């Protein structure tokens, strides 16, 4: 049964939620990059970041074998060392049942992209069927893409109704709504899309920056726009929505800067993997490497870490 | 679980079940940052003499006073106490340099010295940043990212002018004035020195400068740079000390021009003292700037700008946006967002790289801030200070919001020069303009709106030397800076700033 939300009038939405000034956002986030995180606080941040990683493989060449290795890495990021597991593995729907075998009952969750990821250009019926199938295969979380075509055409209600339909299809699985920020282009549009999504998803669901399949992914700037939207929505309604920046966060230093943004914008209650995630793959090993450096005082070569893509 | 029913309440979030507590953000210590002290050596001497005629010389009186680190009240160095005889000697050296070396030197040669000074300052940027922070109490990230780089930028900019002075006043020839006397304040010791010295030297003048009593160290370290740069002796002279030395510098018969940055009170005394003389004057005095936020402004960014406008350098900024004028429809939202923003400002040790708000410059200034804030509360303003811990020693004041302030409150009229924001509201654009201009000062103003035409209208109607639109506290050597009314006269920076250091000859 199709879900119908109240119609969303383009201009009225912007009047309600206000505008964003790009120059000032970039000035604000530049301040996060000057924070100096040392010693104990660095270790805490690195461990927190590891526990927030949605370890991701989204390639045409993914196989059950590749997914098995990804799951093992998520469970034991650095064998022999005292580090937390990653939050989840993030795979294509066809890989969900393979992933589930490895991480069931471990605390590591299986997230599946769905809804004709990354373009979303399939009939709604097909997209919903894909969601249901991934959930049936055991996905704990669904990462959907919004209908950017409809958004840019001003069909806000259509965007929102489709998100509602996916919420319904998710059942008990948590939902992450990918805005694909690079296709929305402006910070105003990112804020508007954040509100469209937040108004129909459930507490514990997430909004997410990007698919990782376009030229521009998560930045401190678009992350800031989205967490400010989450904060404003929370203060208005009491409903806490999670956030997942994805793509482009490759270094521990970047991850810490994103966490500083969370600490200073949303506060302590969002410093948990129930409310904040990193969609990343290469990031995990850099977090481990920095953590080892804090422990031993020296940097280790990339080949000391498992599944290092850039071993030399 | 999740149902298909659209959540109408979520779509229209105005109605909140009253049983649920008001949502609040928690800015606690779940992730407390470890200290991150800047460790570069400021290379301070135990004792600093006067810098006259290219040499460090002891004061005639033989007297020295202590320069104290306001962050922990410890003595940093001894500074020479100059008397009138020392000021005489400085002017004599400057006049000689003007007549023999600097005055006759072609502009392209003067430029070389200015470029050299700028580069030497860049080379020693970290050392100077640390010295500035220790002496003045401002956060290291500000002296590192703002004060020192901007000071170097002013020397670079004016070095570029030195061989192009025929374009300063097209159609006319310009000539230097001679020796200029300069007195600078304690809020941006090195930067104000650069604002004063760079245009004076580019134009061919020689300088006698007195730094503020509490912040002389970077000027005297800068003297070392002048020696390293091989600047001819006497071109720049530093006399340190208190009010007596300042009065002697301003009133000296040799001075062809005096330039003063400081309080309106002292500015008026100097103007009285110099009335009837032929000296040229420029005065950059106090301010009580209005930062005006309209309802259509991007509120979070406006809040960020308001915070930057008043808490930058602990509010020790003459152009600080110390009066927030906020459009009534968004007044409550802006106040709530300001409070949340203040909770994550890090107040404390200025040498810590994560400190946002450092130490108040002196005990006297701290007392003044306290007195004015108390007066504000007594007159009915609502006080908000975030729950932050202040270091046990040193001069600190929590970032402070005073709301429900009206035009008749003292805190809306007098310059506090501290981390205190007075919040007033307005209903219409005309009312905003009227309130913004209803002050004895006129140095700067800020406008926050999404509407371009409104920005242009406000910029025309606000009587302020600088009007920032959707930003605040932006500086550039190419941009003239100065005030209206009791904020002073004359401009610093840009072509206009140079015009105040020359005379037009035919």
Structure description:
The complex is a heterodimer of chains A (312) and B (506). Chain A has 312 residues and is α/β, with parallel strands linked by helices. Chain A has a single domain (13-296), classed as Aldolase class I (TIM Barrel, Alpha-Beta Barrel), CATH 3.20.20. Chain A has 13 helices and eight strands. Chain A has helices at 10-17, 22-32, 39-51, 64-75, 96-103, 124-136, 148-152, 156-170, 181-184, 187-198, 220-237, 252-265, 282-296, and strands spanning 53-56, 88-91, 109-113, 141-145, 174-178, 206-208, 242-244, 278-280. An eight-stranded parallel β-sheet of chain A has the order 7-6-5-4-3-2-1-8. In chain A, strand 6 (206-208), helix 11 and strand 7 (242-244) form a beta-alpha-beta unit. In chain A, helix 3 packs across helix 12 (252-265), helix 6 (124-136) runs parallel beside helix 8 (156-170) and helix 11 runs parallel beside helix 12 (252-265). The longest helix of chain A is centred in the last third of the chain and has 18 residues, at 220-237. The N and C termini of chain A lie far apart (54 Å). Chain B has 506 residues and is α/β, with parallel strands linked by helices. Chain B folds into two domains: 47-285 and 485-505, Aldehyde Dehydrogenase, Chain A, domain 1 (3-Layer(aba) Sandwich), CATH 3.40.605.10; 290-469, Aldehyde Dehydrogenase, Chain A, domain 2. Helix content of chain B is 38%, strand content 17%. Chain B has helices spanning 8-11, 84-102, 107-123, 125-136, 140-161, 189-203, 217-228, 243-251, 264-274, 299-311, 331-343, 363-378, 410-413, 429-437, 452-461, 494-499, and strands spanning 47-48, 50-52, 55-57, 64-69, 74-80, 173-176, 179-183, 206-210, 236-238, 257-261, 280-284, 290-293, 323-327, 382-384, 400-403, 420-426, 444-448, 466-469, 488-489, 502-505. In chain B, the strands form five sheets. In chain B, strands 14-15-16-13-12-17-18 form a seven-stranded mixed β-sheet, sandwiched between helices. In chain B, helix 3 runs antiparallel to helix 6 (189-203) and helix 5 (140-161) packs parallel to helix 6. The longest helix of chain B has 22 residues, at 140-161. Chains A and B meet through helix 2, helix 3, helix 8, helix 11 and helix 12 of A and helix 1 and helix 10 of B.
């Amino acid at each position: 049964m199709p879900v119908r939300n109240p119609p969303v009038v383009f201009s009225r939405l912007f009047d309600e939620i206000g505008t964003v000034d790009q120059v000032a956002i970039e000035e604000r986030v530049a301040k996060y990059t000057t924070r100096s995180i040392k010693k104990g606080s660095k270790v805490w941040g690195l461990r927190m970041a590891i526990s927030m990683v949605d370890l991701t493989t989204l390639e045409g060449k993914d196989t059950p074998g590749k997914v098995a290795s990804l799951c093992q890495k998520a469970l034991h990021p650095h064998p022999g060392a005292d580090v937390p597991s990653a939050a989840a593995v993030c795979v294509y729907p066809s890989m969900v049942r393979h992933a589930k075998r490895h991480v069931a009952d471990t605390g590591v969750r299986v997230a599946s992209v769905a809804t004709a990821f990354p373009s979303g250009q399939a009939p709604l019926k097909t997209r919903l069927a894909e969601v249901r199938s991934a959930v049936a295969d055991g996905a704990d979380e669904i990462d959907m893409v919004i209908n950017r075509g409809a958004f840019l055409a001003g069909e806000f209600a259509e965007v929102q109704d489709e998100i509602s339909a996916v919420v319904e299809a998710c059942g008990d699985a948590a939902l992450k709504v990918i805005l694909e920020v690079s296709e929305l282009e402006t910070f105003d549009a990112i804020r508007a899309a954040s509100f469209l999504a937040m108004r129909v998803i459930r507490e514990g669901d997430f909004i997410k920056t990007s698919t990782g399949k376009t030229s521009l992914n998560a930045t401190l700037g678009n992350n800031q726009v989205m967490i400010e939207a989450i904060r404003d929505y929370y203060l208005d309604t009491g409903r806490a929505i999670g956030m997942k920046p994805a793509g482009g966060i490759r270094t521990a230093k970047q991850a810490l800067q994103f966490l500083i943004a969370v600490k200073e914008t949303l506060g302590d209650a969002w410093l948990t993997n129930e409310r904040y995630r990193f969609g990343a793959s290469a990031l995990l090993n850099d977090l481990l490497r920095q953590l080892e450096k804090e422990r031993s005082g020296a940097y280790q070569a990339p080949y000391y870490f498992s599944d290092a893509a850039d071993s030399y | 679980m999740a149902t298909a029913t659209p959540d109408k309440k979520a779509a229209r979030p105005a109605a909140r079940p009253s049983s649920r507590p008001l949502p609040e953000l928690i800015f606690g210590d779940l992730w407390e940052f470890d200290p991150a002290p800047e460790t570069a050596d400021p290379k301070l001497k135990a004792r600093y003499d006067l810098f006259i005629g290219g040499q460090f010389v002891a004061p005639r009186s033989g007297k020295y006073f202590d320069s104290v680190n306001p962050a922990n009240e410890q003595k940093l160095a001894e500074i020479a106490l100059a008397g009138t005889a020392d000021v005489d000697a400085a002017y004599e050296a400057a006049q000689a340099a003007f007549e023999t070396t600097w005055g006759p030197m072609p502009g392209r040669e003067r430029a070389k010295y200015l470029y050299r000074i700028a580069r030497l300052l860049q080379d020693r940027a970290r050392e100077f940043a640390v010295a500035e922070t220790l002496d003045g109490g401002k956060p290291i990230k500000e002296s590192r990212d703002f004060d020192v780089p901007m000071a170097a930028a002013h020397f670079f900019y004016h070095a570029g002018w030195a061989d192009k002075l025929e374009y300063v006043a097209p159609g006319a020839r310009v000539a230097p004035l001679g020796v200029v006397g300069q007195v600078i304040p304690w809020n941006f010791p090195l930067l104000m020195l650069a604002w004063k010295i760079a245009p004076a030297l580019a134009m061919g003048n020689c300088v006698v400068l007195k730094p503020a009593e509490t912040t002389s160290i970077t000027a005297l370290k800068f003297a070392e740079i002048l020696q390293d740069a091989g600047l001819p002796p006497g071109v720049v002279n530093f006399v340190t000390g208190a009010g007596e030395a300042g009065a002697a510098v301003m009133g000296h018969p040799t001075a062809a021009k005096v330039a003063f940055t400081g309080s309106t009170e002292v500015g008026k005394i100097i103007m009285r003292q110099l009335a009837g003389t032929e000296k040229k004057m420029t005065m950059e005095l106090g301010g009580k700037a209005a930062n005006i936020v309209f309802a259509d402004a991007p509120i979070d960014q406006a809040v960020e700008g308001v915070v930057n406008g008043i808490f930058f350098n602990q509010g020790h900024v003459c152009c600080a946006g110390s009066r927030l004028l906020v459009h009534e429809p968004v007044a409550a939202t802006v106040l709530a967002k300001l409070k949340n923003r203040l909770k994550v400002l890090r107040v404390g040790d200025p040498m810590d790289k994560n400190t946002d708000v450092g130490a108040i410059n002196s005990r006297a200034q701290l007392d003044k801030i306290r007195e004015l804030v108390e007066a504000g509360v007594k007159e009915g303003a609502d006080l908000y200070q975030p729950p932050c811990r202040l270091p046990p020693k040193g001069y600190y004041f929590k970032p402070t919001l005073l709301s429900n302030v009206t035009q008749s409150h003292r805190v809306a009229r007098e310059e506090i020069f501290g981390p205190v924001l007075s919040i007033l509201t307005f209903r219409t654009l005309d009312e905003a303009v009227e309130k913004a201009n209803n002050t004895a000062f006129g140095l700067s103003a800020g406008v926050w709106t999404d509407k371009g035409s409104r920005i242009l209208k406000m910029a025309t109607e606000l009587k302020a030397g600088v009007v920032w639109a959707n930003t605040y506290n932006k500086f550039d050597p190419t941009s003239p800076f100065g005030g209206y009314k009791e904020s002073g006269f004359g401009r610093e920076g840009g072509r206009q700033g140079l015009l105040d250091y020359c005379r037009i000859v035919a």
